[in-house]
Amino acid sequence: MNDLEISRLLTQMRTLSSEAKGVNGPAASSESGATGGADFSALLKNSIDKVNDLQADAGAMKSSFERGDPNTDLGQVMVAVQKADVSFQAATQVRNKLISAYQEIMNMQV
Hints:
By secondary structure, this protein is an all-alpha fold. It has three helices and no strands. The chain is flat and about 60 Å long.
């Protein structure tokens, strides 16, 4: 990486950081608020689909290895299984946090 690429990367990181903190003001957040529900549901669905795909791929690789397919390497199978496991655990933790946040909101007095 040369200095120009590093400076571009730093600029992008600062921009993303300021957007995440909401420095752009309430106008930017109100524009995204109308589609926030659709974006969140699409993001959640895509994440669940990715977890499902990783688990399906790992299952297919395991069964291929068990059948004795010479093109299937044990290392690849183990990596695929671990990727599927980590993604499932992450999805479970996100679900737990969402449930916790929902319960906390429901317990608030209006």
